[in-house]
């Protein structure tokens, strides 16, 4: 999501979302990071975890990192960060940079949100090379995807086959595998050969250029 508006990064069992709030100008854009405790009954115990923010280039290079412990009681919330774009970016190019906010319990990733600092069409998205690995898993298959660079808004399709995927339209970070469950009664070879993987960078690379007047209006 673009940081042309204020952004709220919420972590929690029932609420893992990023919301855009109206603001007057992009110069004042801020990112708020907070943890919202789960609302299940009975409520879960207090969470003793840590949050981490990494500022990264499109090639996966970590430009800066912040990390801090976070203890949140059930049915409560805690703001753990309030950053202006300038604080997050420093001298980095907003079109070639993004921030990753994570909530971790030890080495276990509880939630993750990715923040962008420019509209999608203005981002210098790389051409991602996405690799896939398959294995049998329950009533279907486990599909593990890895990318050498950021792959934004990855979309999986299987043509007209009867296939269900546990997640779709997600961001794939460089060097961080993501495993999805693919439900299907069809043979693995048939499902595997039908898989098509698209991402926003590849889609935009094949799109016609914007008219000069549209680009000038941004």
TrEMBL record:
Boundaries of every Mannosidase Ig/CBM-like domain copy: 47-121
Gene3D superfamilies: 3.40.1190.20, Immunoglobulins
Protein name as it appears in the record: Uncharacterized protein
Beta-mannosidase Ig-fold domain: residues covered: 125-201
Molecular function terms, GO-annotated: catalytic activity
Pfam families reported for this sequence: Ig_mannosidase (PF17753), Mannosidase_ig (PF17786)
Organism: Xanthomonas vesicatoria ATCC 35937
InterPro entries: Beta-gal/glucu_dom_sf, Beta-mannosidase_Ig, Ig-like_fold, Mannosidase_ig, Ribokinase-like
Residue spans crossing the bilayer: none
């Amino acid at each position: 999501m673009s940081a042309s508006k204020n952004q709220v990064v919420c972590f929690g069992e029932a609420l893992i979302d990023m919301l855009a709030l109206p603001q007057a100008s992009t110069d004042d854009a801020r990112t708020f990071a907070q943890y919202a405790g789960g609302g299940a009954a009975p409520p879960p115990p207090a969470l003793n975890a840590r949050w981490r923010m990494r500022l990264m280039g499109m090639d996966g290079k970590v430009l800066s990192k912040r990390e801090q412990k976070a203890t949140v009681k059930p049915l409560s919330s805690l703001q753990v960060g309030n950053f202006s774009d300038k604080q997050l970016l420093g001298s980095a190019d907003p079109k070639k940079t993004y921030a990753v906010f994570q909530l971790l319990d030890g080495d276990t990733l509880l939630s993750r949100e990715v923040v962008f600092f420019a509209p999608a069409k203005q981002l210098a998205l790389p051409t991602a090379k996405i690799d896939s690995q398959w294995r049998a898993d329950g009533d279907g298959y486990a599909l593990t995807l890895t990318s050498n660079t950021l792959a934004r808004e990855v979309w999986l399709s299987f043509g007209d086959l009867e296939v269900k995927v546990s997640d779709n339209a997600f961001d794939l970070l460089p060097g961080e595998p993501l495993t999805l469950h693919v439900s299907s009664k069809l043979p693995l070879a048939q499902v595997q050969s039908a898989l098509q993987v698209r991402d926003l960078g590849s889609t935009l690379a094949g799109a016609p250029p914007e008219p000069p007047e549209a680009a000038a209006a941004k």
